[in-house]
Structure formats: C-alpha cells, structure tokens
Amino acid sequence: MKLELARTAPLEVGADLLVVFAADQNSNKDKNTKPDLALLTSDDRVKRAASHVLDGGEFKAKPNETLLLHAPAELKVTRLLVVGLGASSKAKIHDLRKAAGTAVRFAKARGWRSLAVLPPEAFDAAESARAIAEGAVVADFDSDTYRTDRKDSTIASLTVLVSGGKQEEAAKSLREGEIVAESQNFARTLINEPSNRMTPTILGQRAAEMASEFGLKCEVHGAEKLRELKMGAFLGVAQGSDEPPALIVMRYEPEDAPAEPVLGLVGKGITFDSGGLSLKPADSMEKMKYDMAGGASMLAAMRAIAQLKPKVRVLCVVCATENMVSGKAQKPGDVQIAMSGKSIEVLNTDAEGRLVLADGLFYARQLGATHLINAATLTGAVAIALGQVNAGVFSNDEPTYQRFVQALEKSGEKFWRLPVDEEYRDQIVSSIADIRNTGLTRYGGATNAAMFLREFVDETPWVHLDIAGMAWLDADKPWIARGPSGISVRSIVEWVRGFGV
Ligand code: BES
Ligand code: ZN
Ligand code: ZN
C-alpha cells in the first residue's frame, strides 16, 4: 500500500473511494433523544453530499458503522464512505484507527484499490495521520495465504488529506504508523504459517533475513550452544522433537545511546505445542501453530525499532522449539536444571512455555539486559480470566509497569494487570526440586505461570505479557481479518521508544 499525505481538497480527489467520519454530537444521555449526526469535516461540499441521508436517520454513526453514497453531487469522486466513530464526546484516536481499518476492509471487499481519507478535524493532524496509517495497513492483511483461488485484494494507495499546518509533523507520523503496522503484519505473517512451514529453523532464517534487511545484529544458535549454556529447561522441551531448536539473539545498538538501560525483549517461540506427553486433546490442537506468537512479536518489534531508531540499546532473545511427543520426550515428573541453576520438577509437559522462557529471560540478563519484557501465549487461564478483550500483563516493578501503561495509551492495545504477589509463591514449590512448572491448584493459572517466570527474572524490572487469549482471532472484525492479530507488537515498540527519548 502506497501511503501518502496530500493537501488536495476533497472536491479534487480522484480515488475509488473518499472516506469521511461521522459522530453523534448529542451529549444528552437520554437514550430517547434523537442522535445529532455530524460529519467531522468543515468542507461544505462533503457535508452537502451527505446531509440528506444523515437527516434520514437510518445511519446512527455507531463505531465502525458504514454508509456508502454513490455519485456525491459536487465532488469528483464517484463514491463517498461515511464511517461512524460513535458519540463525539467519547471518540478517541483509537476509534479512528479502527474506523480507518473498517474503511479499508470495506473497500477491499469490493475490489476498490485507491482510497482518500479526510481525517476528523477535531483530532490532532499528526495523531490522525498515524492512526489512519496503522489502521489501514493492519486492515490490509489477510490470512488466507494458501487458498489457490486467492485474489489479490490489497489496497494500492491511500492518501490522507491534510489541509492546515503541521504537514511535516503529520508526514512523519504517517511514516511511523506505517513502520509499526507493517511490523505488526510481519509478526502476523510469521504466526499465520502452519508448523510444517514455520519450524524453529525457518523462524531463525526469517529472523536473520529481517535483521540483515534492517541492519540488526543477529545470531541463531542450535542445540549445541544450548548445551554449552546449560539451558536445561529449554533443552528439556526441545528434546522430544525431531526438529532442532533455535535460540535467536538480536541486537540493536545505536552509537548515540547510553550504555544503560539495555532493554531485553524475550519471546516464546513454540512453533507447535502438542502438549508433549501431557498431550493436548485433538480438538483445536491445530491452533497451537500460533504458540510462537510472542517470539514473532519480539522479532517484529525489533524490525520497527531498527527503523524508528530510538536512542536506547535493545536486545532480543527468542527461544524457538516444537513441543512434541516421542521416545526422547521429557516425561511428567522429570527434573530439569535451568541455566540459572534452579531445579525444576516438570509436572506437566504442556506447561512448556515457562520452561523455555526461564532460560530465555535468564540469558537476556546475562547478556546485559537491565529491564525485561516478555511476550508469550503462555496460559489458557489468562483467557479464562480476561476473555478475548484484554491480554494479561504482570510486572514486578512500578516505574517499568507505568512505562508500559504509557505505551498502551499510544498503541491503543488492551492489557489488564494481574498479580505476581509473593503470597502466590506457595503454588510453585516442589517437594523434589526448587520449583514445579504447574501450580499446586488449578486456581490463578496465569499468575502461577508468571510466578514461575519471576524466579528467573529475580530483581530485574520486568513486564510479562500473556497474550494467549488475544493472539488469534477466530472471526473477522470490521477493521481486522480473522487469524493472527499481532497483539503486543505496537505496545512493545512504544514501551521501548519511551526509554529512548
Ligand atoms: N500454549 C499453551 C497456552 C495456550 C492456550 C495458548 C490456549 C493459546 C491458547 C501453553 O503451553 C499451555 O499449554 N499451558 C497450559 C498450562 C497448564 C498445563 C498448567 C494451559 O494453559 O492449559
Ligand atoms: Zn503447552
Ligand atoms: Zn505453549
């Protein structure tokens, strides 16, 4: 998609579709009063084109509601799409991101290839440009990669119409939005691949290719290096698979950045999670090809960081392996010694994400990370707790967590904090080893997993993202296709950028 900013007046636009936004200006909370719909533009011709149908009342400007007008009088374009933003008193820049995505998916479905978007005047021009770019690029992704009758329905061009000052600032924001959203789509492309086409080795190759394209240092290590590093927890998971594991290490080291902080991005890269001998039921086991979504998010964040160039050092560790059954697989009750020296009783081989992350987090600290963030499709329990609206976030350090909250304000992603309090530690005490890899009870499963990770983080400020419930969308939404969501990429990028200013 070619993204551009233009000063063109709406009257002159020659795209397949002109997109404008509408909101309900009625601040009266009484539900019985009529909505007061207004187009969020002062352009008289656009307003006149839509006034009749807006007065008609069938369009309510609900969030992502669409209204298509043909042959709008006085305008050059042949189609005008009005997208709802909801109540104007509540509409935020995050609603605009989704609404722009809705417009893109509306156009794609109809084979229209060029769009012009008139941002709402009430919003800051630069923020709007960025939100529109993000929403549009994310919306342009489809996950039906292997359909032989697949038609290319990607959008060829999208022009954001900016009339007033702030052109330069808006152009910069547009580019930033494009970089971040393309990186989110990079993660989605990796996550979408089935496990036979995304083995740990292939993930390592894709990471190395991306790193060389964007000037990042990258090393991909095999089992021998894991043995050398004594990564017993990671190796315990990998030993049951015929596919060799990959330890991906990437570095972003700008010369103008101070020696510290060093941010450590750690990702779970299970390219297929059968559960191991604690085998998962057949029903929806196929979903476990996306168990590398956390690792893909970290690689994608590095891709964006390499282009946005914040003045902060970043390193990334992705632990990639399959979790399989075989005569060589680890067995329930086995004890593994993690790289940190801690002994782990593996009660359930399906709680493998925390095992690979134990060594990944410890290794990132050893490589110099002063602050850690990890992302993982770690527990079904997080989805039980939060549903498919919020992902889970855990942290052992208030300032570091507050930086993440600020990142969420920029990214618009939804995360809800869950506890990692000392009182939960009883849950992971083992009678034969230092810790066990499952909780003593079924309760608080997402926290039990976080408590396990905390053992390997120690005092290092840390943010843990459990994205299990949010990494895969089962159905299309108006602004995003079903399949991998790419959740966490934008927030991780913003968290990193927050350290670089
Ligand atoms: N990969 C799964 C978690 C998961 C579940 C991801 C649903 C995406 C959707 C993880 O490795 C797992 O199996 N966790 C177990 C832990 C349990 C055995 C303590 C779980 O959540 O059931
Ligand atoms: Zn598992
Ligand atoms: Zn898993």
Topology:
Layout (H helix, E strand, L loop, with lengths): L1 E5 L10 E8 L12 E3 L4 H13 L9 E5 L8 E9 L5 H17 L4 E4 L7 H15 L17 E5 L5 H26 L7 H15 L2 E5 L1 H6 L3 H7 L7 E7 L9 E12 L19 H16 L4 E11 L10 E4 L5 E4 L6 H14 L4 E6 L3 H7 L4 E5 L2 H14 L3 E3 L17 E2 L8 H13 L4 E5 L5 E2 L9 E2 L4 H11 L2
Parallel strand pairs: 1-7, 2-5, 2-6, 6-7, 10-11, 10-14, 13-17, 14-18, 15-16
Antiparallel strand pairs: 2-3, 4-5, 8-9, 9-11, 12-13, 15-18, 19-20
Helix pairs in contact: 2-3, 3-4, 4-8, 5-8, 7-9, 8-13, 9-12, 11-13
Bound molecules: ligand BES and zinc ion (2 copies).
Structure commentary:
- The protein is of the alpha/beta class and 501 residues long.
- The strands form four sheets. Strands 8-9-11-10-14-18-15-16 form an eight-stranded mixed beta sheet, sandwiched between helices.
- Helix 3 links the parallel strand 6 and strand 7.
- Helix 2 crosses helix 3, helix 4 packs antiparallel against helix 8 and helix 11 packs across helix 13.
- The protein is elongated, with a radius of gyration of 24 Å.
- Ligand BES binds next to helix 10.
- One zinc ion (ZN) binds next to loops.
